[in-house]
Design goal:
By secondary structure, this protein is an alpha+beta fold. It contains 17 helices and 21 strands. Helix content is 32%, strand content 23%. The strands form four sheets. Strands 1, 2, 3, 4, 5, 6, 7, 8, 9, 10, 11, 12 and 13 form a 13-stranded antiparallel β-sheet that branches. A four-stranded parallel β-sheet has the order 16-17-20-21.
Length: 646
């Protein structure tokens, strides 16, 4: 790289209290680090202000081309002396790259300031940051200090509506100390995801010693280039309102009316939300969601035409009209769907008031609860300390002690059982179990309640609790369900802005053979305990789950779950588990839906896939037709009813 730069000396013109000054610098650079077809760049598709800004692949030839760059940047300043030692000033500065504005429409400096030697200064307008800016997810950029000229493009950020306070110079340990804070709210127009930029700068100088401390925090800003590009300002682009906090297809959560954690604005017009959904209904083609929705639209509401942007309003009016009738009240639909029992899952902290109300109403429909203790068994669950304290208050036990903590669980389990519960449900990151001494359990509980427990210890705590829950099921007869293998709240920004359970839970590889051995070593051969295993890791079906369930009396396999609750997933489950576990070490089908109207569709799909599997066995002469007719109702109804003690 060959570079030549020059700066014209600063000049000033004074008119009494007025002062006008100017400064100009320019640079001409010739670079020969280009490469043919970008093959020597690590990421040739990354957006760069300069093609050579991308790192190069080691050992790859480069230099196949050259380019010349010209930079010109003039400065124009204005100052006016006010009474009392105050000064009013203004600054204009822009940079041109090869004859065009560096960043079209954005000034390097366009600001005014009020200053005083004793009080410091306040500057308002467009200005540059002190350090190299980093944009918030999903953009990302490196952090470092910028070259003041930053001709490579890897330099300071450009702020557009900033306020900056710079303190006066303090005499500290025979040196000069200056403290400065800058805040930028970006340009107007944002409905959501409002940007912000905060920078704190501390400078200390003493002789040849010069120290700078820079802290920056940004949110929802827009850099002009990825990687080593500058943060070019918090300017408004409508596309980002739709992108941040969105679905995989660019549909904003707020546009769907999903409440934000901070209570920020979201769409409230239900018809408008439905139209948006309908206009994107084609995105569900080939998915089980499409099957369930089409089934509900046709069999529950009697709608024959396909949902689309054109039919959205007719759907909306038809569904709204139907839901306003007595025939579509939840209890009426419960009976229409011929549901025998629904089990919901509740936290141990839930008073089960709704269950009590249903029970006391005299209605004959059976709605029971299930014990789901995640908020009080997972040290990484938000509010764990307060949750455990509340558990103690509800049960009358001292949950700060391991013995009292377990007693509190027994107390609440007994209450849930009195309200109809026949099962417990445990949604852990893994299936790990443990068999620890009481002293070690107390140590882990102490650290969990103090908030000092690390990730490995939190996993060990959850593992021990699973074993304790299994021992309690031996005593109270509640069937134990384990739903492991979900990486909860994977999207950190989504979790921060919208909370948990918003579609960012991702399946993980899950071990069962080693993870369950401590529990199975203590209880695996018992006859009066049932543990139903689920998985999001289909690779474990034939390798681990089927052999385990085919051997240990306490284990049974739950149906294909969550991401695999689909025609293909159900068929894979039968194909990979039956040869080792058979049919009778599974629990048939029970749906895991929060969508009440999809219950008939899910059971219909499960019955059809199971019958398809049975028909294949009959056709291949591996099963008698009479046996298939006997198995079909077992898989659809009887196995689940027996497994869950219904």
């Amino acid at each position: 790289m060959l570079s030549l730069w020059a700066a014209a000396p600063a000049s000033a013109i004074d008119f009494g209290p007025f002062s006008l000054n100017g400064f100009l610098k320019g640079e001409v650079t010739r670079v020969s680090t280009l490469c043919e077809d970008n093959e020597c760049q690590v990421d040739p598709l990354a957006r760069k202000d300069f093609i050579w800004a991308d790192p190069l692949v080691q050992g790859t030839a480069w230099g196949a081309g050259t380019t010349t760059l010209t930079l010109i940047q003039p400065y124009l300043g204005f100052k006016y002396d006010l009474p009392g030692g105050f000064k009013f000033s203004a600054m204009l500065s822009q940079r041109w790259r090869d004859g065009e504005e560096d960043f079209d429409g954005y000034w390097y400096d366009r600001n005014v300031a009020l200053s005083h030697e004793d009080y410091g200064s306040v500057r308002i307008g467009a200005m540059t940051t002190r350090g190299w800016s980093m944009a918030d997810y999903p953009f990302g950029a490196d952090i470092g200090l910028s070259d003041p000229w930053a001709s490579s493009g890897a330099g300071y950020g450009l702020l557009t509506r900033a306020v900056r306070y710079t303190s006066r110079v303090f005499d500290v340990v025979d040196g000069d100390l200056v403290v400065e804070g800058t805040y930028d709210i970006g340009e107007s127009g944002w409905d959501r995801n409002k940007p912000r930029f905060l920078e704190l700068w501390v400078h200390y100088g003493r002789g040849d010693l010069s120290l700078d401390l820079i802290f920056q925090d940004t949110k929802n800003g827009t850099p002009s280039a990825f990687g080593h590009g500058p943060f070019t300002g918090l300017f408004y682009d409508p596309s980002f309102d739709a992108q941040l906090g969105e679905s995989s297809q660019g549909i904003a959560m707020a546009d769907l009316g999903i409440p934000r954690r901070d209570g920020g604005p979201v769409e409230r017009d239900s018809r408008k939300i439905w139209r948006l959904f309908a206009s994107h209904y084609h995105l569900f083609r080939g998915t089980p969601t499409r099957i369930w929705l089409d089934h509900a639209f046709q069999t529950v509401f009697g709608i024959e035409e396909r949902l689309s942007a054109d039919s959205a309003d007719r759907y909306f009016d038809r569904i709204n009209s139907a839901l306003a009738t007595p025939a579509f009240r939840p209890r009426a639909l419960f009976e229409r769907f011929n549901i025998e029992v629904i089990a919901t899952t509740e936290s141990p902290l839930d008073p089960l008031a709704h269950h009590r109300k249903i029970r006391d109403s005299g209605w004959t429909g059976r709605v029971i609860t299930a014990y789901r203790p995640d908020p009080v068994v997972d040290p990484e669950f938000e509010g764990f300390h307060d949750n455990v304290a509340q558990l103690g208050a509800l049960s009358g036990e001292n949950t700060a002690t391991w013995a009292g903590y377990l007693a509190a669980h027994r107390n609440r389990r007994a209450f849930f059982k009195s309200m109809g519960a026949t099962s417990t449900d445990h949604g852990h990151p893994t299936a790990r179990t443990a068999d620890l001494a009481p002293a070690e359990c107390q140590r882990l509980l102490d650290r969990a309640l103090a908030g000092t427990i690390d990730a490995a210890e939190a996993e060990l705590f959850r593992a021990q609790v699973l074993t304790e829950m299994a021992k309690m099921s031996m005593d109270d007869g509640l069937v134990m369900q384990i739903h492991p293998g979900s990486f909860r709240n994977h999207n950190l920004q989504l979790f921060r802005d919208w909370g948990r359970d918003k579609g960012a839970d991702i399946p993980t590889a899950t071990d069962y053979v080693h993870a369950l051995r401590p529990l199975l070593g203590k209880l695996g051969n018992e006859r009066n305990l049932t543990v139903i295993l689920f998985t999001l890791d289909e690779t474990s079906y034939s390798r681990e789950l089927a052999p385990l369930a085919g051997h240990y009396p306490i284990l049974k396999l739950g149906p294909s779950w969550w991401f695999h609750d689909s025609p293909e997933g159900m068929l894979r489950f039968r194909e990979q588990t039956t040869e080792t576990a058979g049919f009778y070490n599974t629990v048939g089908f029970n749906d895991d839906t929060r969508a009440f109207l999809s219950i008939p569709a899910r059971h219909d799909v499960a019955r059809r896939i199971d019958c398809r599997f049975l028909a294949t066995l009959v056709r291949e002469h591996r099963l008698g037709e009479d046996e298939a007719f006997e198995l079909a109702p077992e898989l659809a109804y009887h196995l689940a009813k027996r497994a869950y003690k219904l």
